[in-house]
Amino acid sequence: MSNTTYDASHKDMANAIRALSMDAVQAANSGHPGMPMGMADVATVLFTKFMKFDAANPDWFDRDRFILSAGHGSMLLYSVLHLMGYPGVELDDLKNFRQVGSKTAGHPEYGHISGAEMTTGPLGQGLTTAVGFAIAEKMVAARHGDDICDHYTYVVNGDGCLMEGVSHEAIDMAGHLKLNKLIVLWDDNNITIDGEVGVSSSTDQIKRFEAAGWNAMRCDGHDAAAIEEAIKAAQNSDKPTLIACKTEIGHGSPNRANTARAHGEPLGEEEIALTREALGWPHGPFVIPDDVMSSWRAAGARSKDAMAAWETRAAALSATDKAGLGDPISTDVMGQVKSAMLDVKKAMSSEAPKLATRQSNAKVLEALVPIVPGIVGGSADLTGSNGCKTSQYKAVTPDDFSGNYMHYGVREFGMAAFMNGMSLHGGVVPYSGTFLVFADYSRPAIRLGALMGVRVIHVMTHDSIGVGEDGPTHQPVETLSALRVIPNLDVFRPADTVETAECWEVALSAAKTPSVMSMTRQGLSTVRTDHTDENLSAKGAYVLVDCDGERDVTLMASGSEVEIIVAAAADLKAAGVNAVVVSMPCMERFAAQGHDYRQSVLGTAPRVACEAALRQSWDRWLGDHGGFVGMSGFGASGPGAELYEHFGITSANVASEAKAAIARKSA
């Protein structure tokens, strides 16, 4: 990488960021000018002297990653991307900041603009997801060598990111794993929306990070030489590094600097004029002088030779390995997955074992792990319970990243965010396990993963009152409905090992959709005993048991309750009632099917659903006369089978509700 010299001074290059940021916020009459103005010096040093990237090729695999965890300061990122010449980040995009349809959204959005490595804004998640980027960098380097993967992950965050509880999970994990290529630049400006940080926090962040195993230091965030020395020291550390950059929020603004007002509102035309004068920036709104622009464009191209050299080295990789640096699941890999899942289905439909679907999950993973490149499992300290550990298990440790299993510890939120970062980095296909009830801890990262569109698989076991004696604190009666409302998230609840194999095949094929695998603690009968090569679960719902003649009622269920409605259908048949059994392992997939298919499955007869959870997510499918057998409140402590009887989730009650639904329609 060249030691580029620039025609413009550091001061002018940093002031270009400040000017564009305050001008764009003013034009939008909305936004956060204070952080970009305060961190402009840090960003200028980082991008002109340290960052390894090529603006003309923003997806170069071995680029350094830059995560703006303080996503409200998005104009810092947008200004830098435009100045360096990233494709598609034009001046008009800055002028259109925060407008409908603009690529320059209020917070950076992954996939919307070149150079935004992830969506940020929910404080703490950028920092935490960056830990996943740094983990993946180590894993890919262990697999392919430093010649192919050797880059840093830089994070800019503020006080809010460090106040959020998930930051503890992030810094603890990063310190434990000795992620020395993770460098966090803290915008230490002592200001939050409510005023000075001291009104709500008195934590010594340096000591906090040091206690977690980090290298931590301070520097003057407006002294270019001091910033440069700090980053150099961080690059030579054997630990992750926090650099507390002491900055002034709204730097340059005579009346707003060092005040909370600089955080989240435009400076105003009068204050902008005064700021231009104070900064020695005589140029009009959105005007960047030629020497400053050419200097920034030179910074954007400073790693061009390094990228070309990397391309030469990467050319020696096999086509499969090179393709796997991005998305390891190629068409060929998916072909192997499909074949392996067919083998599992054939064996399980023939043997018809009674297994908890967490055990089914383990059987499926035994077949998948050897054939999916870069697949990495893990668990939030529930390895023995989740069915995520296979016989190919090799733990990732601080000294060896060649393994395929992460011990995430009791860090559910962090685990989900780490996996988002691992997936975004490339070269890794992450899955992990916890209990379904703890999805509430993971939910913000699950939601962000769905918003970004990343392939992450969340295995969540112990998914109902079937948990039993642990009681209502561990029985997730409302969690399925809560997850099903998240857009672009597939929530799978398979009924047996056959459906589990089908659901995993669908999840791995979904490159831009995360998945939740809802699995039981208790053993379930195999309901798919007739083998078919077709992946029925891919359609979200299908007719499992048909009837002779015209149907009188449709019985629907997912997961552990499918065997209950199968028994209910048999009871109804004996009573002269024609019942069709529909297994619905994924409502989202079913909703995506065409109208004709959905109608062929649901029919026009009354419908009854059964799930050991709350009713809400079933209402869409029940129709006017439908009925529901399930939970209406929290669970209780006791043996799981007894709880099903206690709460009336039985085949007898399903049959009774079916007769009532038929009567309602006839009335």
Task: Kindly report the average pLDDT value.
Answer: 97
Q: CATH homologous superfamily of the largest domain? A: Thiamin diphosphate (ThDP)-binding fold, Pyr/PP domains
Rg, Å, rounded: 28 Å
Please give the order of strands in the largest beta sheet.
9-8-10-11-13-12
Characterization of the model:
The chain contains 28 helices and 18 strands. It is α/β, with parallel strands linked by helices and 667 residues long. It folds into 3 domains: 11-311, Rossmann fold, CATH 3.40.50.970; 331-518, Thiamin diphosphate (ThDP)-binding fold, Pyr/PP domains (Rossmann fold), CATH 3.40.50.970; 540-666, Rossmann fold, CATH 3.40.50.920. Helix 1 (10-28) crosses helix 3 and helix 23 packs across helix 28 (651-666). The termini are far apart.
Summarize this structure as a short list of keywords or feature phrases:
667 residues, alpha/beta, Rossmann fold, 3 domains, 5-stranded parallel beta sheet
Topology:
Layout: H1 10-28, H2 34-38, H3 40-50, E1 65-68, H4 74-84, H5 91-95, H6 125-144, E2 153-157, H7 159-163, H8 166-177, E3 182-188, E4 191-192, E5 195-196, H9 205-211, E6 215-220, H10 224-235, E7 241-246, H11 261-264, H12 269-279, H13 290-300, H14 304-314, H15 319-324, H16 331-351, H17 357-368, E8 375-379, H18 383-386, E9 405-407, H19 412-425, E10 429-435, H20 439-452, E11 457-461, H21 479-484, E12 490-492, H22 497-509, E13 515-518, E14 542-545, E15 553-557, H23 562-574, E16 579-583, H24 587-591, H25 595-602, E17 607-611, H26 619-622, E18 627-630, H27 640-646, H28 651-666
Parallel strand pairs: 1-2, 2-3, 3-7, 6-7, 8-9, 8-10, 10-11, 11-13, 12-13, 15-16, 15-17, 17-18
Antiparallel strand pairs: 4-5, 14-16
Helix pairs in contact: 1-3, 1-4, 1-12, 3-10, 6-8, 6-19, 8-19, 16-17, 16-22, 17-22, 19-20, 23-28
